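Researcher: We are triaging several targets before committing to wet-lab work. For this one, the compound of interest is flavin-adenine dinucleotide. I'm pasting the protein sequence and the ligand SMILES. What I need is the predicted three-dimensional arrangement of the protein with the ligand bound, expressed as structure tokens, so it can go straight into our comparison scripts without reformatting.
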Amino acid sequence: MTKLTFDYIVVGGGSAGCVMANRLSENPDCKVLLIEAGSKDWHPYIHMPAGISKLVNINSLNWGYYTEPEAQLNNRKLYWPRGKVLGGSSSINAMCYCRGHKKDYDLWESSGNHGWSFKDVLPYFKKSENNHRIINEYHGNSGYLNVSDLKYHNPLSDVFLQACEESGYNITDDFNGSKQRGFGFYQVTQNNGSRNSSAQAYLSPVKSRDNLTIWTKSYCQKVLLEKNTAKGVEVIRSGKTQSVFASKEVILSGGALNSPQLLMLSGIGRTQDLSKHNIKTQHDLQGVGMNLQDHLDVCLVQSCNQKITYDTLCEIKAGMQYYLFKSGPGTSNAAEAGGFLKTDLNNEEWPDLQFHFVPAILDDHGRNRMKGNGYTLHMCYLRPESRGKLELASNNPHQPVKIYANYLTESNDWNYMKKGFEIQRQIFSASAFDELRDKEIFPGDDIQSEKQIEEFIRNKAETIYHPVGTCKMGNDELSVVDGKLRVHGIENLRVVDASIMPTLVSGNTNAPTIMIAEKISDEILSSV
Ligand SMILES: Cc1cc2nc3c(=O)[nH]c(=O)nc-3n(C[C@H](O)[C@H](O)[C@H](O)COP(=O)(O)OP(=O)(O)OC[C@H]3O[C@@H](n4cnc5c(N)ncnc54)[C@H](O)[C@@H]3O)c2cc1C
């Protein structure tokens, strides 16, 4: 029987995988297969931005991971949604378009990753971007990814920005220009009021290419290796296990949790851990699954004495307006405004805290629906020092990896969270909110002492969904891929997704992940 063979196999049709599939199949001589575990992105809540409030609860679109008990967070197991659908997490995310700070990339470069300074990555941010408003040297206007201003925002978001100004913070209309610092409205990955996921942006326009094959509902179980060369992958499709081969390369774009899991299931990882699960080591690579970093977030929630928040919005009316005219509250991404702030006086111009303002009560990722009207301010520390890790739970590919986020295990991270919490309260106490403010819901007015605030953080902090670093790029003993994202010690195998970031960027992670894929696909195509 002839072997089913493509030039490139991309595993995972998420933020990075869709870019890889598009760009590699631009060359008509390259036969590309994209394998995605989830379904096509048909669900209407994906496309209507306000659907984000429902997406965390739709199990068929979401891997729905949980961490192991977190010691610093009163042993809570934290919920980690990740997209399981074409577009991956970009199909369920909050659409905020942020790149982080220039110094994040200069740090990648200075820590040994030649070619990843801001100067090097800026052209790929621009290449990916079709910014609908901003035309200057920091932005692109002809890329696949549509970036626009929100078509609609809640009046409370204006009040929030007034409160920020009143509190002494500057207002900006671009977090991705010459300066990141300040508060303002987020630009969003939307096109005419609809979500522009990586699948919508990069796959929809090219899915009919003859040399591009897309398999959905297809679960990759491992990479097939011959000695130290990747030859293909093993996939479960329509209930059957099959092997499919790559004449050039296998590219893992399964995200920060699944790509390292796939490496480990294939025998690439820490021998001491693999042997516990009877997996034969093909290549001992100590960094696989290590160096896990994430932004931990805490929400201040305030009651509002007027029915103007999204809590009591008429969903039917908003849905009709969205489907008929692509306008109104249905186009809101919920996290409409926010900003970046620098508290560390030694770090000129490099913000260390990020805020997202939501004109609604938000608790437990929106899973705890509470009565009443309110507004919420998220806050996270952008450059945590705490490091976590992933471990296989077993050699069964269908069993999720064990996630040890190890949040707040470094005392400095605590300092920033507490400083940030003070700023959340400062902003909500500004007089701009005087006519709207009712009692504080979380943590509540009686929580005032440092000890009480610490306990509040232990009880309530959650992920803001930015895990990275588990297949770190670099040359040290914990690095998994080199500067071209080739897995150390293995031929024809790359990892291209958020897992390769050596350190977290100071902002949301979708645009940086797309940039990474733009850069590496360019690298691959120019060497074909
Ligand atoms: C709820 C939420 C809100 C967020 N909000 C924002 C935001 O507002 N702005 C922002 O910039 N970032 C945001 N993020 C983060 C951002 O979306 C992610 O960092 C980014 O999407 C990661 O891209 P990726 O390609 O690494 O992984 P993903 O996009 O998660 O893609 C991985 C893909 O691989 C597939 N896959 C995994 N394993 C297998 C396998 N074995 N076989 C086949 N397929 C597999 C998955 O199903 C998935 O489709 C958010 C994330 C979440 C979850």
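Researcher: Any quick observations?
Model: The longest strand covers residues 240-252.
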